[in-house]
């Protein structure tokens, strides 16, 4: 495994602008966004609907190429890479937790993590033990690891999502509205868990949220308005 050799400097966006086609014009979703998130730092991005939060995550996740500006993951400029190298960068350095739990219905919690190793081209020795330990560390012990998504609560599914995102030992963890399907108490527990894994795994974590009540649990809150960060 090369994970031990990763140089971790976190996430940096420099002067990022993103536009979408909008009839005969272009709509500016991100307008010169600059942002740095260091390893072990938990940053929230809050802002009204349509302000550009999801666009910011998609660009940071290297899923969308910005019109201009740079996206650096551990110092590597994603824009300078071809598609295959960008996919490898995503696989090796990024963990992504989507709003909708996109777990595979037929797999148990443990298998949701292990299937990633198969995609990566094999299952290194100890992967099963590591997956089990990771699930236990996010609060899913024992028999719950052998349940399928429909046999888990919304909060538990989100815990599996978080464990799965951490399984590749990412440097950067990107989280999109993780509490939208949860009540306040369970939402707060998930944000506390994200704060804990940010510390213990040393990830540069960015969470997009519109839930203001949870913002006192993060290291830093950035506000987004009309594609600009303040
Ligand atoms: N694929 C797309 N094509 C065209 N316009 C888009 C597309 N995706 C988003 N937009 C527009 O870009 C702007 C930013 O959208 P974005 O989804 O990033 O905002 P958001 O802050 O995440 O909103 P929400 O909180 O509602 O999810 C909005 O004006 C939106 O309508």
Automatic annotation (TrEMBL):
Pfam families: ABC_tran (PF00005). One of its GO terms (molecular function) is ATP binding. InterPro entries: AAA+_ATPase, ABC_transporter-like_ATP-bd, ABC_transporter-like_CS, ABC_transpr_LolD-like, MacB-like_ATP-bd, P-loop_NTPase. Residues 13-230 form the ABC transporter domain. The keyword Transport applies. Keywords: ATP-binding, Nucleotide-binding, Transport. It comes from the Bacteria. This is ABC transporter ATP-binding protein.
């Amino acid at each position: 495994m090369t994970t031990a050799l990763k140089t971790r400097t976190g996430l940096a966006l420099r002067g990022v602008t993103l536009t979408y086609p909008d009839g005969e014009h272009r709509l500016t979703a991100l307008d010169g966004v600059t942002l740095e998130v260091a390893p072990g730092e938990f940053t929230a991005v809050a802002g009204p609907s349509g302000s550009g939060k999801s666009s910011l995550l998609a660009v940071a996740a290297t899923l969308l190429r910005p019109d201009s500006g740079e996206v650096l993951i551990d110092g590597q400029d994603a824009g300078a890479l071809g598609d295959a190298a960008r996919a490898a960068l995503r696989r090796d350095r990024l963990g992504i937790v989507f709003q909708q739990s996109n777990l595979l219905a037929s797999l148990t919690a443990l298998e949701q993590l292990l299937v990633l190793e198969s995609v990566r081209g094999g299952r290194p020795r100890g992967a099963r033990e590591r997956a089990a330990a990771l699930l236990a560390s996010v609060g899913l012990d024992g028999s719950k690891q052998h349940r399928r998504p429909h046999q888990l609560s919304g909060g538990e599914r989100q815990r599996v999502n978080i464990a799965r995102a951490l399984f590749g030992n990412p440097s950067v963890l990107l989280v999109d509205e993780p509490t939208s399907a949860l009540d306040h108490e369970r939402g707060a527990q998930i944000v506390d868990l994200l704060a804990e894994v940010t510390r213990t795994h040393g990830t540069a974590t960015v969470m997009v949220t519109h839930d203001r009540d949870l913002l006192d649990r993060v290291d830093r809150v950035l506000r987004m308005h009309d594609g600009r960060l303040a």
